[in-house]
């Protein structure tokens, strides 16, 4: 079932959903199931599965020269989605990214997802390769999420890269896109960011999932500005409980977000990470209760591979 249909059927009730990382290369899928099993108590209608693009490592050869090799630390997004749907009878949302894919590779991945009965995708630009600093598309790949979105919309209309295909069966994906209450780091300002978000909705995006945030006022203001801009699709808030002291400085750096002073002060006073986790859970519960009162369609939790804090939060709310 499509994400948008789950939201419609909920008739105003706030749903619970989660985002997970594929296991590291070489790990067993049982580790993932062990993390997810407790969370299934709260009946998530869908689970997002991230995609991690290739990175490059340099191996020294016998002659002393360095050889550049491509590697993926977390492969298997398509397979994980299929496994989760079969194991839990839950809908999955694979993340489809620009980075690391040509248009043909994107089409092939989407065809595989369609064959597997996966009805949803989240279209993203994806991160730059760490060693390169700035995002660069693959040859014959997409530079922007809007371009990727356009290819998915075209496939939903039965238009494939091979224009000579006859009687091609259209796909039927529900397409989500990302939103940034504190603006995308590459956008000059929030107004410009909203212009491109509106473009993606006008092109066919059916819902928005936000970047994590820790101050609900920023989400409320973001929703207000989206509505004023004519964006009417559901806007799902992304929630991430802080679990370690280091995250108070790492998360703002990596995700270009602010940590409220009250929260950072509480984290700073903690003696260990167990105390930090408790602070993070309590903060996320307060955040979530206010968001539920606001009437958000879904609370979407970024698990980062750790289910315990999400379980403790959900136990208070659902």
Describe the protein's architecture and organization.
The mean pLDDT is 91. This protein has one domain: TIM Barrel. The protein is α/β, with parallel strands linked by helices. It has an eight-stranded parallel beta barrel, surrounded by five helices. Strands 3-4 form a two-stranded antiparallel ribbon. Helix 10 packs parallel to helix 11. The two termini are 22 Å apart. The chain contains eleven helices and ten strands.
Offer a few descriptive terms:
TIM Barrel, alpha/beta, 8-stranded parallel barrel, two-stranded antiparallel ribbon, 11 helices, 10 strands, 318 residues
Q: Please give the largest β-sheet.
A: 8 strands, parallel, barrel
On the 0 to 100 scale, the average pLDDT is 91
Please report the total strand number as a whole number: 10
Count of DSSP H/I helices: 11
Class, according to the CATH hierarchy? Alpha Beta
Number of domains: 1
Helix content: 40-55%
Q: Briefly note the CATH topology name.
A: TIM Barrel
Question: What's the N-to-C terminus distance?
Answer: 22 Å
Sequence stretches where pLDDT stays below 50 over 5 or more residues: none
Spatial strand sequence of the major β-sheet: 1-2-5-6-7-8-9-10
Which descriptor suits the 3D outline? Answer: globular
Rg over alpha carbons: 20 Å
| H/E series | HEHEEEHEHEHEHEHEHHHEH
**Per CATH, which architecture?**
Alpha-Beta Barrel
Backbone structural class: alpha/beta
* Portion in strands: 15-25%
